[in-house]
Amino acid sequence: MRIFIYGGAGSGKSELAEKYATNFEGTSLVYAALLDPNSGGDTQERIKKHKKTRNGKGFFTVQSESESADNFIEDIYTQISDFAKKNQKDLTILIEDLGNLTSRILFSKDGNFLKGEEGFVKSMEFLQKINALSKNLVVVSNDIFLDGAGFSTSLLSDEGTLSYYKTLAKLNSTLAHSFEKSIRVVAGIEVNFRTMNQD
To answer: Which residues contact 189 (CB under 8 A, 6 or more apart)?
Structure first.
């Protein structure tokens, strides 16, 4: 089963994703924390908040501090793969979230970024590899397009920012249309719910 959950900041999307993940019976839970722990700002507070919400729910957490996109992808994959081999049970994997995945794959610490379709292709390859390890996959993403604030002329004149928006938008659309369930969250409420074979 694959579930795609997206919403704006503070919408409750992460809590809902954890609820869906923990409702799958007979599987081991893996939480792929894709936020770069060294990215500064309020990162550590955000990490503490997410750790608190999933405390006691049985998640095995994987994360990576690698600055290289390729090493980051391989690190996350290897940690989950090794856990699966040792655990000998089917996995339910929660990926938090597509916005962080996009950022870490697109941008390098030297200021360069992937252009064109390369970032999207690399992100999809990562998701497909993780999906192959799972019985159930829950992916959380950011609805940064909701109020149009991100589409100011000044922001979109930056080539890197525009590449980020385009890549994330395409990932959101691809997963929303290909996963068995697609859920948008607004103020903790599920809306625009769709399942496979439904409009």
So the answer is: 12
